[in-house]
Predict the structure.
Amino acid sequence: MPRTPPEDAQARRAIAPVICYPTDTLPRPDLPLYTAARDGATKCAEYLVPPREARVYDVPAGHVFRITSVEGPQVGDLNLHNAHDLTERFYSGKTRALHGTHVSTGDRLWSSFPHLRPMATILADTLDWYGIDAYGGSVHDVIGTRCDPYTANVLSGAQYHQCCHSNLTRALAQHLAVPAAGAEPLVHDVLNVFMCTGFTRDTGQYFMKASPVRPGDYIEFFAEIDLLGNLSACPGGDCSAEHSSDTAACYPLLVEVFAPAKGALDRWSQPPRNGYDQSHGMG
């Protein structure tokens, strides 16, 4: 039973919020340089991610990768690793704290501690027109974790293997030539590409709704470091009804990688690892 509110309850609720991490001093990407390099780039690789499956791909630093919806509306769950050190991986929580619950053009995907540096910068997003809808929903979230077999088992007792967590685990295990148990600890919270999500106003619950993505829509990233990408085509399709399903209409996702022309990035250098000394006050 809820407690009786104190006499000053409304005054406490009326206190103005304070932004936790003001971003005025964040290092800014040179978007004109990146865009110019992208405009002169040539496609060097492509990967088709089948429905309800995942694929691993490499993106060298300074290259651009584009994720495109093909054939039908489809969302994807994206993991990113440092290609040379898989323990440095995308940190959705800190990305959310710095850029907000959803990301778009100009935002950056940050890596895990102790590295905490930009891994990729979003160069283009054909869904940037969507904004925030009347339900509080928006596109490309960093609030969801990925559909997984453990939560499904808790909720329904199911043994479902085509969820994004398992897709990402299988793809990484096959790429590394290790058992699933060796790859699974490296799978991490995702960028939900094309997914439309938010939190309900009354209960604060995470919700999804039909993605506005249509064939031809894409999101494009500049690789700040050598990346190993891992993308799952979610079994929820456009996530208009179910999060994990054998019946939802699902479609492929296309990943294309573009190499910059020689000399296009002469003024650019990879971001260094975070400058904190890691002493944690222990000398």
About this structure: The chain has a mean pLDDT of 96. Residues 44-223+234-259 form one domain.
